[in-house]
Design a protein that fits this description.
Layout lengths: L5 E4 L15 H14 L3 E3 L7 H10 L8 E7 L11 H8 L4 E7 L2 H6 L5 H17 L3 E7 L1 H22 L3 E6 L6 H14 L4 E5 L6 H10 L4 E4 L13 H11 L13 H12 L16 E2 L2 H9 L17 E2 L7 H8 L11 H15 L8 H11 L8 E12 L5 E11 L2 E10 L1 H13 L10 E9 L10 E8 L4 E8 L2 H28 L1
Parallel strand pairs: 1-2, 1-8, 2-3, 3-4, 4-5, 5-6, 6-7, 7-8, 9-10
Antiparallel strand pairs: 11-12, 12-13, 14-15, 15-16
Helix pairs in contact: 1-2, 1-10, 5-6, 6-7, 7-8, 15-16
């Protein structure tokens, strides 16, 4: 029988404690839906006793029907010297109305004596009483044994007594927490195995990444018998972050054959990770395993040749098994085979020895000599190829544009204005916009000018903007390369522009970004029709 691993996502609670992360109530609702669509088992949505925003969120979630996940509220054991019935935090947690609650309590004797300053016996009573209270009130109870692995290093016997107290209270799950993120995989494996053997309660694991081993520690805990894994979908969280579930889920499901999410949802993993990053207003690291843009990117000539013959030679799983794509990176050292591999998806009839293949190889070298670089801007390369081979019909034409920059305002922001004239199917359109800087103003002016013709562009926005000076010895006359990354919430793409004028370079990259989005929309419609 396939072993089932319960995936417990804490993006909305532990993830929200990461630096630079702040969710609105609406953000939290969108993330709940996103995670439920993926098929995780539990969504830890916040601490209702800690702030009004979480109370508002839980109040608005009453009656919500989720397809896969159980919404879970998070809180602490009762305070010392207070009965569980009279503890305000406990009452707030109960009032959240979630089917499951996560209760954290101290499993380290050092924390008990020096942080919360209670006796070891009182700490055990706090754990036991709180768990029993929520069980009596019909909740599924997950006990998070905070600092368990550090506690076991200090006093293993007492650390296990805290787990036993939770079991005595009726806990449905006992989760071993590497709260400081400093444990090693073998240590996690051994202690998890002991907990599985000693307790008659399902065991989970909650790891932080302070030493870069959260994923490895989580997998070792599962190997030792844990059946719940906690983390955040794309790894962000307090300090160095939490265990990255987007790496753990496919590792366990695709490589070990253990079910983490419904089988038909695994191919949605990359899109889900990118959507969650978009909602969270963070940039997904390109090198993130399985779901990053570079996870299946190949540049070395021998690598590309090998992958084209046997993909498993340099890919540990098939990219489409997690909804990602293989990317063949372009550079001036690319030969005809590399170019052919890159363009065949949209020009399947192109042959290695054809005149067109040779022409494209020469074109790539010419463009890179002028300062273009396509390994991070494949979308611009595809447009370049289509235009050179006469396989592209322009969606619009930029007739002229002007950007005016003003002095910085009192708050330090730079106010800029852009005026643009475009032509679509013979119709001329003028548009003006103000923005926080010239590129922002230019981007807004493009959108305003094209909105009536291509409303799908409303969903597009820039997620990254990079500028590199190519020949600094030329001082103010130096060429610059502008790289822009864009998204529509589902697809991400990168484009490039080069000029001695940074505004012109930005405009070139923006035009490519817009054209690429419109091209892919047309192709999607044609594919759906066929």
């Amino acid at each position: 029988m396939t072993r089932e691993i319960q995936v417990y996502d804490s993006t909305l609670r532990d993830g929200a404690q990461g630096e630079g992360i702040s969710f609105s109530v609406e953000d939290k609702r969108k993330i709940v839906k996103t995670l439920d669509d993926l098929g995780v088992a539990y969504i830890e949505a916040g601490n209702p006793g800690s702030n009004p925003k979480d109370m508002e969120f839980f109040g608005g979630m009453n009656g919500l029907k989720l397809e896969h996940a159980k919404l879970t509220a998070f809180g602490s054991t009762r305070r010392r010297g207070v009965s569980v019935e009279d503890d305000q935090g406990v009452r707030s947690l109960l009032s959240a109305g979630t089917p499951a609650v996560a209760i954290f309590g101290k499993s380290s004797d050092v924390h008990v004596k020096e942080i919360i300053k209670v006796s070891l016996e009182e700490n055990l009573a706090m754990i036991r009483d709180t768990v029993a209270f929520f069980k009596k009130n019909g909740r599924e109870v997950i006990f998070d044994a905070e600092h368990f692995f550090d506690g076991a290093a200090s006093d293993e016997e007492y650390a296990f007594r805290t787990l036993e107290a939770a079991a005595e209270g009726g806990a449905d799950w006992i989760v071993l927490c590497d709260t400081n993120g400093g444990s090693f995989p073998l240590q996690v494996f051994q202690l998890t195995g002991k907990a599985v053997q000693k307790l008659g309660v399902p065991i989970g694991v909650h790891c932080h990444d302070d030493s870069g081993m959260a994923v490895a520690n989580s997998i070792m805990a599962v190997e030792a018998g844990a059946s719940q894994v906690q983390g955040t979908l794309i790894g962000f969280g307090e300090r160095c972050g939490n265990a990255n579930l987007s790496a753990i889920i496919p590792a366990l499901q695709l490589k070990r054959g253990w079910r983490c999410v419904p089988g038909d949802r695994m191919t949605e993993l990359t899109a889900t990770a990118r959507l969650l990053a978009e909602i969270s207003n963070v940039t997904l690291p390109p090198g993130m395993p399985y779901v990053g843009r570079s996870a299946f990117a190949h540049k070395g000539g021998m690598h590309i040749d090998a992958v084209s013959k046997a993909p498993s030679s340099y890919e540990h799983v098939e990219p489409d098994s997690v909804g990602n794509d293989r990317r063949i990176l372009m550079s001036e050292v690319s030969g005809r085979s590399t170019i052919l591999n890159k363009v065949q998806p949209y020009f399947p009839g192109l042959k290695k020895d054809s005149k067109e293949a040779g022409m494209l190889a020469d074109l790539l070298k010419e463009m890179e000599h002028r300062g273009y670089q396509y390994e991070g801007a494949e979308s611009s390369f595809e447009l370049l190829v289509r235009k050179r081979l006469g396989r592209f019909k322009p969606f619009f034409r930029v007739e002229k544009f002007t950007v005016i920059e003003e002095l910085p305002l009192e708050n330090g922001r730079v106010s800029s204005s852009a005026l643009i004239a475009i032509v679509v199917d013979g119709e001329k359109k003028l548009s003006a916009a103000e923005g926080n800087g010239p590129v922002h103003a230019l981007d807004k002016a493009f959108r305003l000018a094209l909105d009536g013709f291509y409303p799908a562009l409303r969903r597009v926005h820039l997620t990254d903007y990079k500028v590199r000076v190519l020949d600094p010895q030329e001082a103010m006359a130096a060429r610059v390369r502008v790289l822009i990354e864009s998204t529509d919430g589902h697809m991400c793409w990168s484009t490039v522009g080069v000029s001695t004028d940074i505004i012109e370079a930005s405009c070139l990259a923006l035009v490519d970004s817009i054209e690429y989005k419109l091209l892919k929309d047309v192709e999607a419609r044609i594919k759906a029709f066929i």
